[in-house]
Design a protein that fits this description.
Elements lengths: L1 H12 L7 E7 L3 H10 L11 H19 L8 E8 L3 E9 L5 E10 L6 H8 L11 H17 L6 E10 L4 E9 L5 E8 L6 H4 L12 H13 L3 E8 L8 E10 L3 E10 L3 E10 L8 E9 L2 E10 L8 E11 L4 E16 L2 E16 L2 E19 L8 E11 L9 E15 L2 E13 L42 E15 L2 E15 L8 E12 L2 E9 L9 E7 L3
Parallel strand pairs: 1-3, 4-6, 7-9
Antiparallel strand pairs: 2-3, 5-6, 8-9, 10-11, 11-12, 12-13, 13-14, 14-15, 15-16, 16-17, 17-18, 18-19, 19-20, 20-21, 21-22, 22-23, 23-24, 24-25
Helix pairs in contact: 2-3, 4-5
Length: 576
């Protein structure tokens, strides 16, 4: 008995047979076909752990596997010869593949029948079917095209669509194939009533988020838009949209949306650094629902080396069919860039709404500023009327590959209406992003502002034009560009022009998405456009796409002022 136990222990301690290595080559086929074969043939994935017996068994099965792999690619007469050479721990398999003549599509008949046969969206899906007369038959292309037509029909509301004919007629003697695909669309369904399952806010507050009316033709894009609109509302964390086909009334299908409420309050704290502002901190509390009419608001504290401010706002959203959002605001702050200091007090009321693709806002504010510029100390009180229009379109808000933003503004006051000075200020800013290559983006921005006033010396810094900094002209410190007085002190101007062109290359790294950038900036502020002189800067930088937005570290040289040292700029935020 003891001798048996010793033998068993010896067997357990002895290593098993070592795995064998096998190298596999396929010759006589294109790179594309070779990739397909390698992904399908077992011996190509044998690795280093297979035994010699397993390798020989996989080798015997390989020719059939190669031929089976090539048939869906249109090659039905493939000839395969294989050799396996080697020893117990190292093998070499070589397969000579003659794919033969491909099977050609001699007729591709793809058509629609039924009420949707004239639908332009479905016709485009039919026209895009990837197999046409003269093509090599590809089973995957056939399935992909068939699926695309079926999905297009479902997306357009043809929920009963089915294929009356779906065949590939293969003639092995003539090496040809006929494809016949006929979709019977059935009727197009309609939107029924919309049920919003929630008890938090007045239902009229949400009806404006429904992008369609009862009786409109059903389109899944409308359902996605409904889900997006409700998901963007501050009241809900999730919106689940469901078509209730079992409750259909004729062709009308009710739409049910299950809305999950958010917590009524949110708290945000932030700490950061920017070369324009230095170390900065922020604390904010938001009130998502103050009552059933959806009123909401926020209180915000900010502090940095240049700014200490407090602000609060109260928002009154529209109840359907109204479309105007009202915002009431209050703010107070102390602002001290190098060229000025300001203690400000603000009261404002602003209605805003969407006008087509534009977010349009009108604001009336009362602004009190006690300020110092050079040797001047003054107090201004301005009743300011302002309008602002903003257009934004991007494929990805956090890291856009293409997009544009255009912002236009006009504001002013008159000394006859509760104001210490008269002025009118026009502002415009444009930003754009295009992708030149998969990881290469071109970013541009430009800004033109003008302040007209017979009382310019009485205007606070907030109504004067200055340039320089990470979001203006890099290579120059924050708000250091602009006209100076007889004492050589910056006083701000009436005209401003800035522009920038940047190219960045983004790549994937183990630590996230990083990038390198080169850029050139130009611009300045002046007393008028006639006395304008451009300052220029250029440089290079590093980018990191962080969870909170793009982080930028730039090194820039002031080209128009030779001999001045380079400056680095650090900033973060969206590209648009």
């Amino acid at each position: 008995m003891g001798r048996c136990l010793a033998c068993i222990a010896l067997l357990l301690l002895c290593p098993g047979p070592a795995g064998a290595k096998v190298s596999v080559d396929f010759v006589g086929v294109s790179k594309d076909l070779e990739r397909q074969i390698k992904a399908s043939v077992e011996i190509a994935a044998a690795g280093d752990e297979a035994s010699s017996g397993t390798i020989q068994s996989l080798h015997r099965r390989a020719p059939d596997q190669i031929r089976a792999c090539l048939r869906p690619m249109g090659f039905y007469w493939a000839q395969v010869e294989g050799d396996l050479t080697g020893s117990d721990d190292k093998w070499s398999a070589r397969y000579r593949v003659d794919a033969g003549e491909p099977l050609l599509v001699t007729r591709a008949h793809v058509a629609l029948e039924g009420p949707g046969q004239g639908d332009s969206i479905l016709l485009r899906a039919v026209d895009a079917f990837p197999l046409q007369t003269g093509d090599t038959l590809r089973h995957d292309h056939y399935e992909t095209g068939k699926k695309a037509i079926a999905l297009a029909a479902a997306a357009r509301g043809y929920l009963d669509a089915r294929f009356d004919s779906s065949v590939m007629r293969i003639d092995l003697e003539t090496h040809t194939c006929e494809v016949v695909l006929i979709l019977q669309t059935g009727p197009r369904y309609l939107y029924g009533p919309v049920r919003l399952l929630q008890d938090e806010v007045d239902p009229r507050l949400l009806l404006g988020s429904v992008p369609f009316e009862e009786g409109d033709s059903l389109d899944l894009a409308g359902l996605r838009k409904l889900q997006s609109n409700l998901g963007e509302a501050p009241y809900f964390s999730q919106a689940q949209v469901e078509l209730k086909r079992e409750e259909a009334d004729g062709l009308k299908i009710p739409v049910e949306v299950d809305l999950q409420p958010r917590k009524t309050q949110r708290y945000e704290f932030g700490l950061g650094y920017g070369t324009d502002t230095g170390v900065r901190g922020r604390a904010e509390v938001g009130f998502r629902r103050l009552n059933r009419r959806g009123h909401n608001g926020s209180i915000r504290l900010e502090a940095s080396e240049l700014e200490r401010s407090f602000s609060a706002d109260y928002r009154v959203p529209p109840l359907f069919p109204k479309k105007v959002l009202w915002t009431f605001g209050f703010g107070a702050g102390d602002f001290s860039p190098d060229w000025s200091t300001t203690r400000a007090l603000r009261f404002s009321v602003s209605p805003s709404r969407m006008v087509g693709v534009w977010r349009a806002a009108l604001a009336l504010s009362y602004e009190i500023d006690r300020f110092e510029i050079s040797v001047t100390t003054d107090t201004s009180s301005l009743l300011v009327l302002k309008t602002e229009w903003m257009f934004l379109r991007a494929d990805d808000v956090r890291q856009p590959r293409r997009g544009a933003r255009l912002q236009l503004g006009l504001r002013g006051s008159h000394d006859a209406v509760l104001s210490s000075a008269s002025f009118i200020e026009a502002t415009s800013e444009a930003r754009g992003i295009i992708t030149l290559l998969p990881d290469l983006r071109l970013l541009s921005r430009g800004q033109i502002n003008y302040t007209g006033s017979p009382d310019f010396e009485e205007l606070p810094p907030s109504a004067r034009q200055v340039a320089g900094g990470s979001q203006s002209v890099r290579g120059f410190d924050y708000e250091t560009l602009g006209p100076v007085d007889v004492y050589g002190a910056q006083v701000g101007g009436q005209a401003l022009i800035t522009s920038s062109v940047e190219m960045d290359f983004l790549f994937i790294h183990a630590l996230g998405r990083w990038g390198l950038a080169v850029f050139a900036d130009a611009g300045n502020a002046a007393r008028s456009f006639n006395s304008f002189h451009f300052e220029t800067g250029a440089g290079a930088g590093v980018r990191w796409s962080s969870p909170v937005g793009m982080l930028r570290l730039d090194f820039a040289w002031p080209l128009s002022q030779p001999g001045e040292p380079y400056r680095f700029h650090f900033s973060m935020g969206p590209d648009l």
